[in-house]
Amino acid sequence: MLPKDMELLKKELTGHALEVAKVFGIKLDFSHKSIKRVEKILSKVHKDFKKTGDEDGLHGIALEFAAYIICVIEQHSTQGVWKRNHPELGEETFPYDWSNRTIFPYAWCMKRIFDGKGDNVWSKYKAIVMSEID
Q1: What is the bridge-based pairing of β-strands 81-82 and 96-98?
Q2: Which domains can be identified in the chain, with CATH numbers?
Q3: Rounded to an integer, what distance in angstroms lies between the CA atom of residue 102 and that of residue 97?
Q4: What is the DSSP letter of 90?
Q5: Which among 32, 38, 91, 125 has the fewest CB atoms less than 10 Å away?
Q6: Which residues in 29-132 belong to E strands, given as ranges?
Q7: Rounded CA gap, 25 and 41, in Å?
Q8: What does the CA dihedral 128, 106, 27, 79 come to, rounded to 10 degrees?
Q9: Tell me: the pLDDT tens digits for 90-130?
Q10: Contact status, residue 40 vs residue 29, Cβ threshold 8 Å
Q11: Are 65 and 41 in contact (CB under 8 A)?
């Protein structure tokens, strides 16, 4: 996808993330601290996954919250470039080039959903993003 297409996709997916959050009774406000609420949502999704083993739709949820995380970053810092593929890590890894580095919010969300609390997205956000912004 071209960068312009990724921008449109980011907006669409972020809208879906906001809708998913509403289903969980959580309001996301694009603040840094809202990533704690994303963590809470992904924790609940993980618990459901562990119970059912059903992966249906979980990659989409991870992508939606990755887009939301990118929007939060861009609200408080410089804009980066979100891509579909990474030259070394492969297709559909959704890297985000930002602040002279490449980060992987999609992988953060995927790992949180499938692997559990050891892959806390708030911890990663604080360590990688907020340390760069502050």
Answers
A1: antiparallel
A2: 3-133 (1.20.120)
A3: 4
A4: B
A5: 91
A6: 81-82, 96-98, 101-103
A7: 10
A8: 60
A9: 899 999 999 999 999 999 999 999 999 999 999 999 999 99
A10: no
A11: yes
